[in-house]
Amino acid sequence: MSIEVKVPQLPESVADATLVSWHKREGDAVGRDENLVDIETDKVVLEVPAPAAGRIAKVLVADGSTVTSGQVIAILEEGASAATGAAPSPVAAPAAVKAAAEDRLSPAVRRLVEEHHLDPAAIAGSGRDGRLTKEDVLKHLEQGGAKPPKAAAPAAAAKPATPSAPVARGAREERRVPMTRLRARIAERMMEAQSSTAMLTSFNEVDMGAVMALRAKYKDKFEKDHGVKLGFMSFFVKAACDALRKYPVVNASTEGNDVVYHDFCDVGVAVATPKGLMVPVLRDADQMSLAEIEKAIAGYASKARDGTIGLEDITGGTFTITNGGVFGSLFSTPILNIPQSAILGMHAIKDRPMAVGGSVEVRPMMYIALTYDHRIVDGREAVLTLVAIKEALEDPARLLLQI
User: Fold this and answer.
1) Domains in the chain, please, with CATH?
2) Which of 1, 98, 156, 277 is most exposed by smallest CB count within 10 Å?
3) Model-level pTM?
């Protein structure tokens, strides 16, 4: 029985997508739910699973082609065996196992495996159904996993250079690579934010001593009880939600000439991935506990880096937090995630001498930045939002008492 393999339904905001690469060729046998092909939209990379076990009878769309929702891209013969007539020999079995393992890899993991010349079947997977994650591959490399083979020495050694011979210099090569859809979309949104909003950034600084002391005291028990580490981001999410309740215009968005106020806090947390920046959204973050926030962030970050994050995970959002501090950024002006009216930027924590109670003390300080759309947010609300976040972080009891 012939089955059509189709492009998954794309969201209304996505007109088309790019077929990045086939992982199966005509005549190849496939198992049900095996990933056949990667399709990249301007937001995420989608995997297209086999609808049934069988054989790829016909590939209708080549790598790099533009595709649309529901388009037929291949024909699958259900229940058919691979094109090869002979049974696989014992020698060929390991190669077949390796190929099957590679078909289950996400785009990010596959890139790592290929770059480092690794055998995915030799790496233990910690993901769903034993799938490899990016962290699994990185851990394998840290533990002395295979490295790229060195180039073989030339058959005939070159003659020693004479004093008059020119000195060989490094290659000055250039490569021209088209932007991926995701990168092009990120660039488009950044330019749109610059040209369509009146962005202004206000700054403040936070003494992180109280939060750091709280983490140091309870981090082990927190991880034991909840199965996730206690990070800084959950404190910032809670502090931001508390401030947004006090100054709702900072949690608003623009729609034409209207300002849309939200009675909920769907906070997006920017995550850097191999393909570019993604912003998974914590729905009703103001109703979540610190543990629920940390678990959600960890889950989204893993999915984003593995390329398995869904469109529903990154759409919407009323406010965004980005943490350049994890890369060492000391000071920056984040760009709005339109149509949202504000974005909070976290930065690196640095020990600095501060005046405290008439004396000088060395304190762990962080600069924080709030970029806002000055068309609808006045400086007063922006500054007071930052002050509210600062006060909540410097006295975490405020978050529990909601004062």
Assistant:
1) 1-82 (2.40.50.100), 107-148 (4.10.320), 181-401 (3.30.559.10)
2) 156
3) 0.67
